[in-house]
């Protein structure tokens, strides 16, 4: 007879005693939290001074809120209760004995990860003692490292606001960042504390920005210690995101002077060490912040009364035509000069040649289009003149309008590069070539505007074909960017190789594939193949779950450094999970101490339905997080294991795999994509012998049976 569901069999350890197996009642009435006085095989005085704690993993205390997570076979330890331990360590960190104080701080740093202990310690005003150790101490060794680690873990629980920190404490943390002769672990913790602190208060931002100079952060970025490099980048990103638009622009200008892009391109993007997810995210944010500096110009229409803007517009005309003119335009009458300017602006490709400023009133792309045209004319004057003069000599209907093309191209590039959109909290997709060039957007424009002219000629386009040409150019750019070229030169080579005829071939291939798969017999064959291929996809999803994935813990305040790993057991019966350290990519299943039996899984929640997304509902912050969030409900509905997938791909594979375990249909968009790919491959193999043979929509008619079809043996005569 199976044991009752509310009873679990566990092992309990205690120092100096033989471990014992007991049956634990999961829901005894009126048990206080933390769980004290649990029936144990030892008779102990003052049972309320003891509590149960997991013996493996993070050694979390068992409380009323998490006791139902105890599984059969768990190993627990009977130890000092959180309040007693908090009291002991509170006294220990005030000890005059250095060894006792150091040991207490080390233990405090370890136990502070547990929310129950942290609450008890903070309630005793323990953080005040930590402030005192930092503010009044001169130690920069092991004791300080344990102190900063304990402080970081305690603040992680959000019981105390970062805004309560004193200026003295902050300046002390800043001093550790600015010191040369200090242990790297202390600098990492100090940088992490400042990163958490900066977004919480404008005062803190200004203090840290003033005390920790960009030069100092650049020194840390150039260290060979990858963790120190990562923390320095995290603080730099926190400062950039918290700064005002003007401050952000000044900071980016200074970093450009210091050649930070070239350093990142050489020493981080192309480092011999693999790029971690965290660093990839920071590089994405740095790219996004830098490109978004163009947003103001993109959203600003041209002011026809602005002298500066009019001069920029006139410089385009002068660069293209006045050097060719034998007679200066100033020698003509006002009317003749106005007529000549209008003619030249028309040759430049402006729709409104009498008042070209009107073409730039549309925002976006606004003044950004004008900036790009001026940059192209000044930095590549030969290419600019060749573009304009070459099209000036064509027949009117075949000339490629430079200005109109530039305005539309600028808009296309803004859309492709997501200029003006807020940074995603989880994205890691950056372009390696971005960090190899100072004026990336402008240089990219220079390559692409010449591509427009090349494609225009290849298509033999007229003015009526303008939109078609720009659609082809957009496709050329997006297809090439998807290849992630490492430099603009490589991008230029590849995008020019992807000419109009290649685009047509790609489109034709895709169209033929679509047409051949729409024939009625082929559709019937697809339906027959689907069950077999869906089973193949199910097996692949379960195999992926067995391999496991590294997940990050993300709070509403900032992107966390903490990692945890989850994988399915080879027999598909248990989900194993547990915390892991940075750099561990595939921990053995035995090291993952937490377990959820698949039989106990009730349902899968995604997006807004997940409890951890409801806790962090703060508008744009969570648009990307919502797309990656999912939760497993197990035992009873209030107990969930919450996930934030590192990528949309992982989200699809995990939600599909979990649905398979729950006996439900796979619903992700990846399932349909994979099914289409597999069906396409299978159909091509099956139809290989029918190449160049048209498949009729209906099967040929079956002929009538012949009149002499009478050779069937009649069993009825045999019975008689």
UniProtKB/TrEMBL annotation:
Involved in cytoskeletal rearrangements required for phagocytosis of apoptotic cells and cell motility. Acts in association with DOCK1 and CRK. Was initially proposed to be required in complex with DOCK1 to activate Rac Rho small GTPases. May enhance the guanine nucleotide exchange factor (GEF) activity of DOCK1. One of its GO terms (biological process) is actin filament organization. GO terms for molecular function: SH3 domain binding. The keyword Methyltransferase does not apply. The gene is Elmo3. Residues 308-481 form the ELMO domain. Keywords: Apoptosis, Phagocytosis, SH3-binding. The keyword Acyltransferase does not apply. It comes from Sakesphorus luctuosus. SUPFAM superfamilies: ARM repeat, PH domain-like. It comes from the Eukaryota. Coiled coil: none annotated. This is ELMO3 protein.
């Amino acid at each position: 007879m199976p044991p009752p569901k509310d009873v679990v069999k566990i092992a309990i350890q205690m120092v100096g005693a033989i471990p014992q197996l007991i049956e634990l009642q999961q829901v005894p009435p009126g048990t206080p939290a933390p769980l004290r006085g649990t029936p144990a095989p030892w008779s102990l005085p003052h049972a309320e001074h003891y509590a149960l704690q997991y013996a493996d993993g993070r050694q979390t205390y068992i409380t009323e809120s998490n006791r139902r997570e105890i599984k059969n076979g768990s190993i627990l330890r009977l130890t000092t209760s959180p309040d007693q331990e908090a009291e002991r360590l509170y006294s220990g960190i005030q000890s005059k004995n250095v060894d006792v104080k150091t040991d207490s701080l080390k233990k405090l740093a370890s136990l502070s990860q547990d929310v129950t202990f942290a609450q008890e310690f903070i309630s005793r005003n323990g953080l005040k003692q930590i402030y005192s150790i930092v503010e009044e101490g001169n130690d920069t060794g092991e004791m300080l490292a344990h102190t900063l680690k304990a402080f970081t873990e305690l603040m992680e629980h959000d019981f105390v606001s970062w805004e309560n920190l004193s200026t003295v404490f902050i300046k002390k943390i800043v001093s550790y960042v600015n010191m040369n002769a200090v242990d790297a672990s202390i600098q990492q913790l100090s940088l992490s504390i400042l990163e958490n602190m900066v977004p919480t208060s404008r005062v803190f931002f200004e203090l840290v920005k003033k005390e920790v100079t960009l030069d100092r952060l650049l020194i840390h970025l150039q260290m060979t210690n990858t963790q120190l490099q990562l923390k320095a980048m995290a603080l730099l990103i926190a400062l950039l995101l918290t700064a005002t638009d003007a401050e952000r622009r000044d900071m980016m200008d200074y970093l450009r002077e210091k050649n930070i892009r070239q350093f990142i391109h050489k020493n981080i993007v192309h480092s011999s060490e693999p790029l971690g997810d965290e660093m990839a995210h920071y590089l994405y944010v740095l790219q996004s912040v830098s490109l978004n500096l163009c947003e103001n110009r993109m959203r600003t229409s041209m002011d026809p009364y602005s002298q500066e803007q009019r001069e920029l517009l006139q410089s385009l005309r002068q660069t293209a035509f006045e050097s060719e003119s034998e007679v200066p335009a100033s020698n003509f009458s006002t009317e003749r000069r106005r007529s000549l300017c209008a003619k030249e602006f028309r040759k430049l490709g402006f729709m409104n040649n009498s008042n070209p400023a009107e073409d730039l009133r549309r925002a976006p792309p606004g003044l950004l289009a004008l900036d790009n045209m001026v940059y192209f004319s000044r930095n590549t004057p030969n290419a600019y003149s060749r573009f304009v003069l070459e099209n000036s000599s064509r027949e009117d209907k075949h000339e490629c309008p430079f200005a109109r093309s530039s305005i539309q191209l600028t808009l296309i590039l803004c859309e492709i590069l997501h200029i003006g959109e807020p940074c995603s909290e989880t994205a890691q997709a950056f372009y390696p070539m971005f960090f190899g060039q100072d004026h990336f957007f402008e240089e990219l424009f220079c390559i692409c505007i010449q591509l427009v002219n090349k494609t225009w000629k290849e298509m033999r386009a007229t003015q009526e074909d303008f939109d078609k040409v720009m659609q082809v150019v957009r496709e050329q750019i997006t297809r090439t960017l998807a290849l992630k070229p490492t430099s603009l030169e490589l991008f230029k080579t590849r995008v020019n190789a992807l000419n109009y005829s290649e685009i047509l071939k790609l489109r034709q291939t895709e169209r033929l594939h679509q047409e051949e798969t729409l024939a009625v017999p082929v559709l019937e064959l697809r339906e027959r193949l689907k069950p077999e291929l869906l089973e193949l996809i199910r097996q692949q999803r379960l195999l992926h779950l067995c391999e496991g994935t590294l997940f990050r813990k993300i709070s509403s305040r900032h992107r966390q450094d903490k990692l945890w790993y989850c994988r399915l057991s080879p027999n598909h019966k248990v989900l194993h999970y547990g915390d892991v350290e940075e750099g561990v990519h595939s921990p053995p299943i035995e090291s993952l101490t937490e377990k959820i039996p698949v039989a106990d899984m009730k349902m899968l929640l995604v997006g807004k339905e997940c409890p951890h997304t409801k806790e962090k509902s703060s508008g744009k912050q969570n648009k990307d997080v919502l797309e990656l969030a999912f939760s497993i409900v197990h035992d009873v509905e209030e107990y969930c294991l919450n996930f934030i997938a590192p990528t949309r791909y992982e989200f699809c594979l995990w939600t599909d795999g979990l649905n398979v375990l729950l006996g439900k249909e796979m619903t992700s968009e990846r399932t349909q994509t994979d099914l289409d790919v597999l069906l396409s491959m299978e159909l091509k193999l099956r139809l290989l012998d029918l190449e160049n043979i048209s498949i009729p929509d209906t099967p040929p008619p079956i002929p009538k049976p012949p009149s002499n079809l009478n050779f069937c043996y009649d069993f009825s005569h045999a019975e008689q």
